[in-house]
Amino acid sequence: MTARGGFYTAIAALLAYPDGAFCRRLARCRELLDNADPQAAAHLADFDAATRNAALADLEELYARTFDFNPQCALEIGWHLFGADSNRGALLVRLRDELARHGIQESCELPDHLTHVLPLVDRMSPDEATRFVRACVVPAAKKMLAGMEGKQNPYESLFRCLVVMLQAEFGSEVCGPGVVPPQEETQPGTAAPQSPGVR
Question: Is the pLDDT of residue 175 over 80?
């Protein structure tokens, strides 16, 4: 784990399907954010206030409605970057390698799911994390956030917290000719994945 202290891993735990440990995970996330960015902390407090007294069944229903049944908010970053384009496959292969390299065990979710991607950000070197976050994570997270805006969805506050923290630490996304996750080099004879199209 890097000096980031595990904040992104804690956010990832809140983006897994809710269970009985949800409130404890949320309290841990708020603890990690203490004395950090006040704007991000305020968004996380809003998420806490909106979910604190919810029954587990209601949290499960909210999660499914938000992420499972709404493609605009799907938690797989590759979907938002590339849609059904074959370049998403290249991203998945690269991320699977990166997860293994950093000792992150895969779950039933695809490698580009935020529950895998955010712990990876915590474990990457500063240079690796900056390239990856700017090129892939921030653009995808902004698209997910846009899918929630104005719908009184508590997860909007959680994503606002995440985007604020990512941009405060890593800056804005790269606007270049291609998205190359998460290392810059490509295999000999292969082209870098091109900029994603709009789904």
Answer: no
